Amino acid sequence: MNVKRLMLSALITLLLTSTGLMLNQSTAHAGWWEDYKQGIQSFTELPQEVNELKQNYDQAMNELDQAKQNMQAFRDENTRLAEQNELLAQTVKQLQQAEAERAASAHFWKTLLFSAIGLVLAWFVFTRLVRVGLRRR
Q1: Within a domain: 56
Q2: Would you say the C-alpha torsion 80, 82, 87, 88 has a positive or negative sign?
Q3: pLDDT of residue 13
Q4: Does a structural domain hold residue 124?
Q5: How is residue 31 annotated by DSSP?
Q6: HEC string of 52-93?
Q7: Domain of residue 51, residue span
Q8: Fewest 10 Å CB contacts: which of 27, 35, 37, 102?
Q9: Count of domains observed in the chain
Q10: Can you say how many angstroms the Cα of residue 11 is from the centroid of all Cα atoms in its chain?
Q11: Non-local CB neighbours of 25 within 8 Å, separated by 6+ positions
Q12: Surface-to-core class of residue 129, CB atoms within 10 Å of its CB (0-12 exposed, 13-18 middle, 19+ buried)
């Protein structure tokens, strides 16, 4: 609606200006017909320029809408990736805890096994020493 009003006011202004210029000339001049034709031509080219400006405006608005949609898509993707990153961080933390528990358990069993072997060897050596000691007496 504003574009129509703007076009109408521009047309009226142009018409009044061209009429005023024609009436302002007090003497006849040889190229008045050419001036009149040029005024009409510029008057008829004005709607084309307005349409061109409107098309450029519509194209810019479409590009802006597309950019907004792309920005929203990037925000949504960023949010999704942040949630996925948090989930992966929790999974890594759980895996690290499981690995630490496994390592502690392995250390415990290794210590238990070497202690048992050491006790068996100590018992074997102790019994041999007791036998050797008893034979000498």
Answers
A1: yes
A2: positive
A3: 77
A4: no
A5: T
A6: HHHHHHHHHHHHHHHHHHHHHHHHHHHHHHHHHHHHHHHHHH
A7: 2-23+32-103
A8: 27
A9: 1
A10: 46
A11: 32
A12: exposed
